[in-house]
Amino acid sequence: MADCLFCKIAQRELEADVVYETGAVLAFRDIAPVAPTHVLLIPKEHLASVADVTTAHGDVLVEMLAAMSSLAESENLTGGYRIVTNVGSDAGQSVNHLHWHLIGGRKMEWPPG
Ligand code: AMP
Q1: What is the pLDDT of residues 29-52, one digit of tens each?
Q2: Interatomic CA distance for residues 60 and 41, integer angstroms
Q3: Closest CA to 100 of 26, 34, 12, 11
Q4: Of the candidates 93, 91, 69, 64, which has an alpha carbon nearest to the alpha carbon of residue 81?
Q5: Which of 7, 18, 29, 30 to mutate to test the pocket of ligand 1 (most atoms within 8 A of CB)?
Q6: What ligand 1 atom has the least distance to the C-alpha of 28?
Q7: What proportions of the chain, in percent to the nearest 5, are helix, strand and coil?
Q8: Nearest CA to ligand 1 atom 20
Q9: In this structure, which residue's CA is closest to atom 3 in ligand 1?
Q10: How far is Cα 87 from Cα 51, in angstroms, rounded to an integer?
């Protein structure tokens, strides 16, 4: 999608620190990490958020969940980790392309702010 930051990263028009890629998904390090590990995982297909997900996206969603589990292992997040996706402005979504934050490497609190 034109003017979408993460579509441009997915299409390699913009640089990112890519840590994982398949035909359908891409993971790269967040530019402003909030923890020792902070990776963003996106579908290459443009979806604005999980609010756009339908049953037709089942395969890519399962692939993303499995990828996050693999990434947590390769990042050595043996103590646990958090996966988060923000939807809309109240939740703090700032990039309107579906992405999961994979955050770990430090102790976290609940509830989030
Ligand atoms: P959210 O606020 O949930 O939409 O998350 C967007 C995330 O994208 C934030 O954590 C930003 O730090 C991150 N971000 C924005 N631009 C870039 C970029 N060019 N490369 C990597 N991460 C980015």
Answers
A1: 999 999 999 999 999 999 999 999
A2: 11
A3: 26
A4: 69
A5: 30
A6: 21
A7: 25, 20, 50
A8: 31
A9: 93
A10: 7
